[in-house]
């Protein structure tokens, strides 16, 4: 429901975020291309509206473009009307808008998590289609503190306690959170200066959600010394520790791991197991995330159980599942490959779109959707050529196959795989392994600015 512009007492010491201060924050997450086109997620709440209006002025001063992405989750009867209201407000301020509709199932076990995933998926696809490289999100310092506490209740390690990053890299764009060091009340003060109304989302006050209950508990924690400033400072220190661990794990992977174009990885067990346990576990998690086509690492308790099984003294092969992958230890090597039951079922994929979070499929001149599913145990005409390429059996089961108009099944040519010439000539489709997350990314961290 619409709410009035935030009311700020005149004698308060809280000040609005100035355009110059905001520009300084963006300098920390730059650089931006000339005449840049950026996007911002705008829910219609005070935080995202404040960010949107600040960005509108920022791009105007740089001859850039801004598109506000408004998500209609359809979870409440009034969702569509609220999205149109937010669009009307922004159009009145000459801000370009796009309403993206999420098609969520009627029965959802985890409402907030499912809605969040759908929201980022829709915005990410829009950015990719429009060639937009920067997606802004209005998370602020209280959000960061809540994230740290939420992860603490889950038993998270350094990664979870580091909270959210200012810059989160994606294959085709990046997510920017320049307000992580800015308090919510300053954003409300900023919106009040604009005289802008906003939308009140009742789910932000519903105690059935854990994040809301943690938010309510924060005032009591602050009285005991766990203030927002101290919690965000702790997250910043954890981010420094996370960067050190990330650098160490990447150095280990550079010498002990190999990534193959068929979408699997191999680890040298001796080198991997000789590293400190935290570094070994982290490097395994990054491999699983990469091969599994996931955005987030597996849960720490599951990761530790898998690590313990792999490092236990055993003369027989060891096989475990983790993060949608099979992790197999045979002799001096550990193989990480996609778990077949977790592979996407038959799906229609447009050329040059990603399948299963791992492969880009293409055919010269093709514009219509391609029907794709995992190989499984099917017998395929071209498979003999792949056997000659010495692809492990466990890997072959999760390879993408393409269903032709005549019902025949084809295996694409995997770019980078040495195969028989006769097989390559018969392959009309090609596949490139390009997972959602690479093994290494931008340094994690943020600066507390408030």
Biggest sheet layout: 6 strands, mixed
Mean of residue pLDDT?
86
Total number of beta strands? 21
CATH class of the largest domain: Alpha Beta
Structural class: alpha+beta
The CATH topology of the largest domain? Rossmann fold
Shape: globular
Please, how many helices? 15
Estimate the strand proportion.
15-25%
Short account of what is shown:
The model is unreliable at 7-12 (pLDDT under 50).
Question: What labels describe this entry?
Answer:
450 residues; five-stranded antiparallel sheet; 40% helix; six-stranded mixed sheet; 19% strand; alpha+beta; single chain; globular; Uridine Diphospho-n-acetylenolpyruvylglucosamine Reductase, domain 3; 15 helices; 3 domains; Rossmann fold
């Amino acid at each position: 429901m619409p709410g009035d512009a935030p009311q700020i007492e005149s004698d308060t010491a809280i000040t609005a975020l100035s355009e110059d201060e905001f520009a300084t924050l963006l300098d920390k997450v730059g650089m931006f291309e000339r005449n840049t086109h950026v996007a911002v997620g705008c829910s219609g709440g005070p935080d995202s509206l404040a960010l949107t209006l600040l960005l509108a002025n920022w791009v105007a001063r740089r001859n850039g473009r801004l598109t506000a992405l408004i998500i209609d989750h359809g979870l409440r009867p009034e969702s569509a009307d609220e999205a149109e209201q937010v669009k009307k407000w922004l159009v009145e301020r000459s801000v370009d808008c796009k309403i993206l509709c999420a098609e969520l199932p009627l029965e959802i076990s985890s409402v907030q998590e499912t809605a969040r995933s759908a929201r980022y998926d829709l915005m990410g696809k829009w950015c990719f289609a429009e060639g937009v490289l920067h997606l802004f999100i209005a998370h602020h310092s209280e959000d960061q503190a809540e994230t740290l506490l939420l992860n603490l209740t889950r038993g998270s390690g350094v990664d979870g306690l580091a909270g959210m990053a200012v810059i989160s890299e994606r294959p085709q764009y990046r997510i920017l959170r320049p307000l992580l060091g800015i308090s919510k009340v300053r954003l409300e003060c900023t919106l009040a200066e604009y005289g802008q109304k906003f939308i009140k989302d009742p789910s932000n006050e519903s105690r059935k959600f854990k994040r809301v209950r943690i938010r309510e508990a924060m005032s009591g924690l602050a009285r005991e010394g766990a203030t927002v400033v101290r919690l965000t400072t702790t997250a910043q220190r954890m981010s420094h520790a996370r960067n050190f661990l990330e650098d160490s794990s990447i150095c280990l992977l550079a010498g002990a791991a190999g990534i193959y174009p068929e979408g699997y990885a191999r680890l040298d067990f001796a080198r991997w197991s000789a590293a400190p346990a935290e570094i070994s576990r982290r490097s395994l998690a990054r491999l699983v995330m990469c091969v599994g086509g996931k955005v987030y690492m597996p849960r720490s308790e599951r990761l530790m159980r898998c690590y313990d099984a792999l490092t236990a003294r055993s003369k027989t092969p060891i096989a475990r599942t983790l993060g949608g992958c099979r992790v197999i230890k045979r002799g001096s090597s550990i193989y990480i490959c996609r778990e077949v039951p977790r592979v996407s079922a038959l799906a229609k994929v447009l050329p040059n779109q990603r399948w299963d979070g791992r492969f880009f499929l293409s055919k010269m001149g093709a514009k219509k959707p391609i029907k794709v599913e995992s190989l499984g145990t099917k017998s395929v005409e071209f498979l003999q050529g792949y056997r000659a390429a010495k692809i492990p059996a466990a890997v072959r089961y999760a390879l993408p196959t393409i269903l032709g108009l005549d019902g025949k099944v084809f295996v694409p040519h995997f770019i980078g795989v040495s195969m028989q010439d006769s097989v390559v000539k018969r392959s009309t489709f090609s596949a490139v392994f390009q997972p959602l997350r690479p093994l290494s990314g931008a340094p994690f961290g943020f600066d507390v600015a408030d």
